[in-house]
């Protein structure tokens, strides 16, 4: 997929301003497209519901120290204030309860932690909204996303 649809992850991870020794949550790590952007000296905990996605992520060459854990973003298996920062890419458009997932990220990160989200969401501009809905309708008529992968690119998430 990356051949046709590549979005650079460096700016997302750089926005976390990570320092050596910090521990960061990569929420719904998937196949690990964020992982190469994490700097050396940082510890990353990647969580996802899918073992298979994380098996792909394990193959990635990375500078940071990465561990993986199966965990539901809506019920994260970590105590409060466990992480110095968190990142999540293209997850809120697929997850059943994005508000709950964001609340969980807030719970497990320390007060004042930076949280970086890269995702599709509904534009606040009504003109752009019309185009988003048109594209969303036509792509579902073309069979994407498939029955297996549910992706809503026009979600308005208030938190
Ligand atoms: C579109 S992929 C994005 C993966 C990766 N973050 C990226 O940027 O490429 C969405 C991922 O969310 C995971 N996922 C969906 N619902 C989840 C949940 N409730 N808890 C944890 N992971 C979930 C899926 O298994 C999948 O790996």
What this model shows, in words?
- The protein has 159 residues and is an alpha/beta fold.
- It has 2 domains: 10-118, Vaccinia Virus protein VP39 (Rossmann fold), CATH 3.40.50; 121-154, no CATH class.
- It is 25% helix and 21% strand.
- The protein is built from 4 helices and 5 strands, in the order H-E-E-H-E-E-H-E-H.
- A 5-stranded parallel β-sheet has the order 3-2-1-4-5.
- Strand 4, helix 3 and strand 5 form a beta-alpha-beta unit.
- The longest helix has 16 residues, at 126-141.
- The radius of gyration is 16 Å and the shape is globular.
- The mean pLDDT is 90.
List the helices and strands and how they pair.
Blueprint: H1 10-14, E1 23-27, E2 43-48, H2 51-58, E3 65-70, E4 83-89, H3 98-108, E5 109-118, H4 126-141
Parallel strand pairs: 1-2, 1-4, 2-3, 4-5
The chain binds S-adenosylmethionine (SAM).
S-adenosylmethionine (SAM) binds at residues 28-30, 33-34, 48-50, 53, 72-74, 89-91, 94-95.
Q: Which structural class do the helices and strands define?
A: alpha/beta
Largest β sheet strand count, sense and barrel closure: 5 strands, parallel
- CATH fold-level topology of the largest domain: Rossmann fold
Rg of Cα set = 16 Å
Count structural domains: 2
- Large-scale geometry: globular
| Share of helical residues | 25-40%
- For the record, the CATH class of the largest domain is Alpha Beta
Q: Count of DSSP helices?
A: 4
Determine the CATH superfamily of the largest domain. Answer: Vaccinia Virus protein VP39
Which ions, cofactors or small ligands are bound in this entry?
S-adenosylmethionine
**Average pLDDT level:** 90
């Amino acid at each position: 997929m990356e051949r046709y649809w590549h979005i650079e992850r460096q700016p997302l991870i750089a926005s976390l301003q990570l320092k050596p020794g910090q521990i960061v949550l990569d929420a719904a790590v998937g196949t690990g497209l964020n992982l190469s952007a994490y700097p050396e000296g940082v510890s990353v905990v990647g969580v996802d519901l899918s073992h298979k996605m994380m098996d792909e992520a394990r193959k990635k060459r990375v500078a940071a120290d990465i561990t993986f854990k199966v965990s539901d973003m809506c019920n994260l298996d970590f105590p409060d204030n466990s992480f110095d920062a968190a990142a999540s890419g293209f997850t809120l458009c697929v997850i059943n309860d994005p508000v709950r997932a964001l609340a969980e990220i807030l719970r497990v990160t320390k007060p004042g932690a930076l949280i970086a989200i890269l995702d599709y969401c509904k534009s606040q501009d009504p003109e752009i909204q019309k185009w988003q809905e048109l594209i969303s309708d036509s792509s579902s008529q073309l069979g994407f996303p498939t029955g297996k992968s549910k992706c809503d690119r026009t979600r308005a998430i208030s938190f």
